[in-house]
Amino acid sequence: MYYNGIYHQFYQYNPNGSLWGNIVWGHSVSTDLINWIRLEPAIERTTPSDINGCWTGSATILKDNRPAIIYTGADTEKRQVQNIVFPKNVSDPYLREWIKPDSNPLIQPIGQGLNSGQFRDPTTGWIGPDGLWRIAVGAELNGCSAALLYKSEDFVHWTRVDHPLYSSNASTMWECPDFFAVLPGNNSGLDLSAAIPNGAKHVLKMSLDNCDKYMVGVYDIKSDTFIPDTILDDRRLWSRIDYGNYYASKSFFDSKRGRRIIWGWTNETDSSSDDVAKGWAGIHAIPRTIWLDRNSKQLLQWPVEEIESLRREEVSHQGLELKLGDLFEIKGIDTLQANVEIDFELTSIESVDPFDPSWLLDIEKHCREADASIHGGVGPFGLLVLASDNMDEHTSVHFRIYKSQEKYMVLMCSDLRKSSLRPELYTPAYGGFFEIDLKKEKTISLRTLIDHSAVESFGGGGRVCIMARVYPVTLINSSTRMYAFNNGTSTVKVPQLKAWSMNRAQVNVRKG
User: Fold this and answer.
1) Partners of residue 138 on adjacent β-strands
2) Is 369 helix (H, G, I), strand (E, B) or coil?
3) Which partner for 381 in 175, 260, 486, 491 could form a disulfide, CB atoms 3.0-4.6 Å apart?
4) Model's pTM, two decimal places?
């Protein structure tokens, strides 16, 4: 949340080590979303209603400009219940201490069809036209996934509405639901409790299948329900926030800059013993501004502009041509900690390959079969990052273009299968598709942020985002290379390529 000039980031944290367990709420603060100071844990396991874990929840700024956090606790019976905390002293700019009132738990998993072990992760609250507060809680209801709706006058006493905000029989449980308003084609954010302008859409985001998915639709005030614009029975076809290693994301309205920012967690894909040796496990991706495209179909995401403050040495190239098999090395920057932005311009689309809609059911499988070494009509072209001198290790982030009836489809892959010589790692080939109008759009953009084990990529202006974790042996020697490449039969032009070394952010430095 953003409160009185300070960004607060709360996160699941084990104070006793880098393995899962003993979960409390860690707390860090920042003035710029980039450099963070770690504070004492905000919520610890101290009461019967959270003694077995302080799990996910959300912060809300109340009408009197006082923050409140509703979070899931595992109680003495290991039921999942919803609790609240308030800051002890709102004049403390860092809000170091939080108080649990005697009214906890506020909400218990009571009601027909509820599973007490699948009832968690309340959303940020919002105010309806009747003046009542609302939150949604992820749940399993009669064996189906649901975002249950609760109402309150005072944010403490809650009543369950007799129908969910939305439910689906396509899965059994949604974690970390998020609900927010967006204005098509406008990258400024909306506060869900403020007046929502005409033409706005609503987004319901949920975490399942080890990824974050979402639906765009309308919030029917009269029925207090979310109505998706499109309902797809096969959840494999649901839109995703990120097509890589990215989960349990939360968004908030940043009143400082009038934008909506989304945070996502990315876990380690090496071993538990590696985590113990490192002394930490799991990181957050770069915070992203998130908004809705003008067609009201797709969320777009872009790293917050503050990340650009870390840029140092810059290299720039214009007017490159990449023919079949070409590798162009990007030199002059720190390839272990870098920001690369590159535009690809297609010289011909006559040799474009046909699109098979069945690929949408398993895009990772298609990325494995059509990898960066397989010549296509238009593509693959993109970046090779964290590459060893002999290319035994490298991570490929690339595009392919396909023709589907009247439109063109762009496949974006982040292929980790050759990212490391270590055999025990999880090294998938991630991928996502987006549509493109090649008559209107002459170039396809790629932005990749590299920070040692993190490779975070944004394709087509943020239409597909892929977060990846890689652990090349080459990192130990601090000697990696980076290339732009083309393995398609059609020549690809690069009108613009810019790359920067990135400074190290000050993260979780203890002060005071």
Assistant:
1) 120, 147
2) helix
3) 486
4) 0.97
- How far is the C-alpha of 448 from the C-alpha of 386, rounded, in Å? 12
CA–CA separation, 319 and 347 (whole Å): 13
| Cα–Cα dist 179/335, whole Å | 37
Residue that has been written with the tokens 């980031």 in this structure: 9
Q: Which region holds residue 299: left if phi is over 0, alpha if psi is between -120 and 50, else beta?
A: beta
Q: Strand pairing partners for 211?
A: 208
Contacts of 339 (CB under 8 A, 6+ apart): 307, 308, 310, 311, 447, 448, 449, 450, 499, 500, 502
Of the candidates 425, 430, 393, the residue with the CA atom closest to the CA atom of residue 414: 430
Name which of 468, 56, 504 is nearest 266 in CA terms: 468
Give me the tens of pLDDT residue by residue for the chain, a chain 512 residues long. 999 999 999 999 999 999 999 999 999 999 999 999 999 999 999 999 999 999 999 999 999 999 999 999 999 999 999 999 999 999 999 999 999 999 999 999 999 999 999 999 999 999 999 999 999 999 999 999 999 999 999 999 999 999 999 999 998 899 999 999 999 999 999 999 998 999 999 999 999 999 999 999 999 999 999 999 999 999 999 999 999 999 999 999 999 999 999 999 999 999 999 999 999 999 999 999 999 999 999 999 999 999 999 999 999 999 999 999 999 999 999 999 999 999 999 998 889 999 999 999 999 999 999 999 999 999 999 999 999 999 999 999 999 999 998 899 999 999 999 999 999 999 999 999 999 998 888 899 999 999 999 999 999 999 999 999 999 998 877 689 999 999 999 999 999 999 999 999 998 765 44
Are residues 80 and 110 in contact, defined by beta-carbon separation less than 8 angstroms?
A: no
The radius of gyration of the chain's CA atoms, rounded to the nearest angstrom, is: 23
Q: Point out which residues pair with 500 in neighbouring strands.
A: 314, 339
Contact 59, 86 (CB under 8 A): no
Euclidean distance between CA atoms 32 and 464, whole angstroms: 25
Beta bridge partners of 433: 411
- 3-state class of 357 per DSSP? helix
Neighbour count for residue 321 (Cβ, 10 Å): 13
> E strands within 276-428?
283-284, 288-292, 299-303, 311-322, 326-329, 337-346, 353-354, 381-387, 395-404, 407-415
Q: Per the structure block, which two tokens stand in for 474?
A: 């080459």
- Alpha-carbon distance values, 140 to 75, 112, 115, 121 (Å): 18, 11, 6, 12
